[in-house]
Amino acid sequence: MRTPLVAGNWKMYKTSGESASFVKEFLPLVSGVKGVEIVLAPPFPSLPLVASLTAGSNVGVASQNVHFAAEGAYTGEVSPAMVKEAGAGYAIIGHSERRLYFAETDDNVGRKVAAALAAGLVPILCVGETLDEREAGKTFDVAGRQLRAGLAGVDSPRAARVVVAYEPVWAIGTGRTATPAQAQEVHAFLRGILAELWGRGAAEAVRILYGGSVKSENIADLMAQADIDGALVGGASLKPASFAGIVKFK
Ligand code: PGA
Fold first, then answer.
1. Per-residue pLDDT tens for 25-46?
2. 0.70 exceeded by pTM
3. From the CB of 9, is ligand 1 less than 6 Å away?
């Protein structure tokens, strides 16, 4: 049985003060939630604060990125160990906005996933096609290529710790969600690749999240699909009541 995971990706929203207000309002709303892993991914400056405010609660913390090196002359970057020490348990890696605006390559994403695992973080590896790629019939090629490259440095004993997020780029921030059937088709395909890489048992243990315009109105239908094990939520994770509504999808 895979424990569902619902993560809120705040992107470049919320100062530390705003992050603290969110957490104070959010924790009581979800304190009774059982059987769902809840994660918040604040911007780097508020990560230690969010981690300390959520310590001992049922809410975990993720970074939105990490660098692949342990340390070095990489101005503006943050290492997995730094993120871990700041209190994060997870790291979002390879988000489409990083691939698009910050020239993140498949190869870099693979190195980051391996580095995150080595530092004891749970990587949330994002994959997904653009609208042009979907319309050109390349959805499976693109998502499959990104998944294989992202996992190139992962050996099977570590497999179960990896989380995958399928996020069709055309559904991110557009209000245009993939239908549950469209998402399930890709999730099943991705799980097939995991089985090919690590065997069926390991593949069955990996959570595959869906992301792209998830809200409280559509989460239940998505979660009803056999291979959808949670959600990576952007816009609808910015307000405590809205994100709590998604976390309480059952
Ligand atoms: P959205 O973003 O929920 O605002 O579509 C999802 C994401 O980018 O992870």
1. 999 999 999 999 999 999 999 9
2. yes
3. yes
